[in-house]
Amino acid sequence: MFKNIEVKEENKKKLMESLLVDVREKNEYNAEHIENAINFPQSTFNSIEFSNIIKNNKNIIIYCQSGRRSLQVCEKLDNTNNYQIFNLIGGINSWKENGLNTEFRKKLIPIDRQTQIMMGFFIVFSLMLSQIYSSYWLIITTIVGVGLINAGITGWCGLSKVINRMPWNKVV
């Protein structure tokens, strides 16, 4: 069973001595991450491969941007091995708010926010076109709605995968 951990003064020693695992996408990790953290994206998460990578560490702290994705990864893990899994509450945002260092390269709008912006744009654009030209443009609104339902049920969003590959999201 995993435990939650907060970025507080009394936890700083444990935070610094543990293996930090960033479960955000590779481009988010490349843009900014906690020093000495390794990247293991939630979208390609495999608990067997994960266990092979971390087997020599006692304490593993999993984090993301705000704590939501890391919580999902922690819930997936089978914690029968000799290590303790911690979910960093508040993610890298909390880490920075408490004055701890990160390696920063480029400011990115998070993929989930970019996806929300694009879905909103598609809905407004298709509604405008349906009023001006034809009601057939409402098909786009239906497709976006079905995509949102699918993402909510399965946790997989095709649009976010496409946006993740866009050139403005690449950090070298």
**Which stretches are low in confidence, meaning pLDDT under 50 for 5 or more residues running?**
none
Distance between the termini: 36 Å
Sheet with the most strands, sense and barrel status: 5 strands, parallel
Number of strands: 7
CATH level-3 fold name of the largest domain: Oxidized Rhodanese, domain 1
Which range does the strand content fall in? 5-15%
The 3D shape can be described as elongated
Count helical runs. 8
Descriptive account of the structure:
The chain has 172 residues and is an alpha/beta fold. It has two domains: 3-104, Rhodanese-like domain (Oxidized Rhodanese, domain 1, 3-Layer(aba) Sandwich), CATH 3.40.250.10; 111-169. It is 48% helix and 15% strand. It has eight helices and seven strands, in the order βαβαββαβαβαβααα. The strands form two sheets. Strands 1-6-5-2-4 form a five-stranded parallel β-sheet. It has a two-stranded antiparallel sheet with strand order 3-7. Helix 4 links the parallel strand 5 (59-63) and strand 6 (84-88). Helix 6 packs across helix 8 (158-164). The longest helix is centred in the last third of the chain and has 22 residues, at 111-132. It is elongated and about 60 Å long. It starts with a strand and ends in an 8-residue tail after the last helix.
